[in-house]
Amino acid sequence: MPLRSGALTPIERNIAETMAELGDVQLVSVKLSVSDRTIRYALQRPEVQALIAAQQRALVVTELLPLANKAMRQVLESDRTPAAARVAAAKLVYDRAWGADAAAAGKQPHEMSRDELGAAIARLEAAAAERAKDVTPSKPAVFD
């Protein structure tokens, strides 16, 4: 049961942290000796979901990115790596460093394909809709 203040209970916090680590309701249930039902109930709370997402982002940044960078460096530096794999790795590095859409972002409309134009128009319409202000009065004005 959540606290009245909306804060996470200690069991909800444990569930969120363990779920971020293990990623499976049954494994969390066994590790914490908590019923699946309790875990599923806790997972419905947005606060628990937010904590899980934060824990997973932290895991990616602190543990997985350094491993991925090390693996990428080994692929690029090894003489035994096939040329096609080295090219694919180099392309991935360039895309991540400068963005895959960097080249497409600078295109003029006459240089874009039909799909690119449609996507650009959709982005512009979405941006315009976000900035639009409702100017309809809440109550109709009464004129004498």
Key structural traits:
144 residues, mainly alpha, 7 helices, 69% helix, 0% strand, flat
Verbal overview:
This protein has 144 residues and is an all-alpha fold. The chain has a domain at 102-131. 69% of the residues lie in helices and 0% in strands. The protein has seven helices and no strands. Helix 1 (10-22) packs across helix 2 (25-32) and helix 1 runs parallel beside helix 4 (46-77). The relative contact order is 0.06. The model has no long low-confidence stretch (mean pLDDT 84).
Shape: flat
Q: Note the quaternary state here.
A: single chain
Helical residue percent? 55-70%
End-to-end separation in angstroms reads 57 Å
Rg of Cα set: 25 Å
Rounded mean pLDDT is 84
Strand content: under 5%
Q: Helix count, per DSSP?
A: 7
Q: Helix/strand-derived class? A: mainly alpha
The largest β sheet comes out as: none
Number of strands: 0
Order of helices and strands: HHHHHHH
Low-confidence segments? none
Task: Indicate the topology.
Layout: H1 10-22, H2 25-32, H3 36-43, H4 46-77, H5 83-98, H6 102-105, H7 114-131
Helix pairs in contact: 1-2, 1-4
Give a quick precis of the structure.
It contains 7 helices and no strands. With 144 residues, the protein is mainly α.
